[in-house]
Structure formats: structure tokens, C-alpha cells
Amino acid sequence: MASSAALVLGGVALALGPIGGSIFGGVDADPDKRVSGAGDRSAASLAVGECFTSSQRGEVYSAIRVACSRPHDGEVFATVPLTGPGGTDDALAKHSYHQCRNRLTDYIMDDWSMPDTLGVNYFYPTRETRQSGSTTAVCFTADTHGRTASSVRKDETNLPADQIAFLRLELASGRVWKTHPDLGSLAANRAWSVKLAAALDHEADSLEPATWPVGARPKVAAYVGELRKSAELWRKAVAAHDSDSYFARSDDAWGHPDYKYQRDVRNALGLASNLPATCFGPPF
Q1: H helices of the chain, where?
Q2: Is the predicted pLDDT of residue 216 greater than 60, yes or no?
């Protein structure tokens, strides 16, 4: 096995057990699981959209391409060039994880369609192999209950234009929601609220003029109204004179937009409409 092609398996080791219901798994406690660099069995040669099975011989893992309609262990959703200083293997693992996690919704844009058993995993080059020229992490999904025989891909390759238009707006707002400063200062929370209100206004403005299917228009209109209500509540929180007033007003804002409005639009557009019961990790 050529050392320059060796990669380490991060995330949850394939078929070794559940992640505890989390959509994203933590880093393997024993990450030194190397992948064969031989031809089609090299994890480094896997491309986005390909599915594979894996086998283990000692500490060496091989990845063999198979059709996604056949039972498989993983599905590649991104390849990530690792830039910047090498650092320790642990630092590379953490960097790979965050880079992979940030790209998941590019591949599964309908994020509500993600199974509860979906895990985010990655192969990454160790510091030693990175110095030899291996600088790419391979991101893949795997079902924590075992092999699956279907693709999780939900993007421009297999979704209609109206679904894509809606999901792009939802994901843009969602990225702002996820940057909430949980333990931040009043100033940090106010700054975030300003960004969120602007994102909600942008989504509402973008939804209104679009040409939606006739059956979806009433649901979209109701959701637009809820988005505008949410944006206004966050602006009221920003205008609060002190910390107590801000957090009291933000408590009112957190209830909007009510997810049932999203659910109704998703139903009307033929998207997944059950909010997934997922959590996010690992605790880096």
C-alpha cells in the first residue's frame, strides 16, 4: 500500500454501531483505520455521488464502488481539499469533520428527508501522508443501522425547479439560525438578531414573486406572512433597551416561524414534511 494514498477513517466506523440517533457522528475513538491505495479500492479515488462497500483486513479498509441501488456502506457527498497548516492528526480530523458537515446540505438539500439513522463520516489524510501529497478528505454518509440500498441525494440532479428554489431559500435562512450565539453577550445576540431578521425578510421577499404551482400558492402566502411576523419580532428584540427586555422579547420571537407553515409548503411542493428528530455533534 502506497503511504501517500493512505487515508484515515473519521466519524463513526462503518457498521460498528449506532450514533445514538444523531445525524452527525463523533470522531472514531481509534481513528487509525487506513484505506487501501490500490486502484478501485482506494477511498481517495471515490467521487461525489458514488456508493461503496468496505472491507477490513487488520487495520486496512478497502472501498469498492457499487451502484447506489445495491446494498452499500457509504455514499460520497463531497470531497474537500484541506488547505492551511497540517497540524496534528486530531486537528485534521476535526477540520475534515466540519468541512464535511458544512457541505451535507449541498447534496441533501431537502434536509428534512434525512433519515434519523444517517451518519456523516469521512476519510482524511494523516499529517504524514498529507506531507507526501494527499490533501483531500472524502465525505460520505452511512446508515448507522447497517447497509442501505438507495441514494440519499436530493439536489439539482433529481429535484424539480420549484423544490430547488424553495430549498435554497430555506437553507440560506437556516445557515443564519445555526449561528446563534448560545452563550454570547447581549451585543452578540443583537447582532445575530439583525442578521436573522434580514435573512427572513429576504426569504419572504423572494418567495412572494415566484411562480409557484397553483395548489402551493396559498400555503406559500401563509408562510410569507409568518416569516414577516418572525422578522418583526426579532427587530423588536433588537430595539430592547436592556438585557432582560431583549431576552423576554426574543422568547416571543423563538416561536416563529411556526414549523407547521414550513410543513404545509413542503407538503404542497411534494417535499419531506416531517421534521426530523435529529441532533448535532460532535462536541469539538
Answers
A1: 89-107, 127-131, 161-177, 186-207, 217-238, 243-253, 259-269
A2: yes
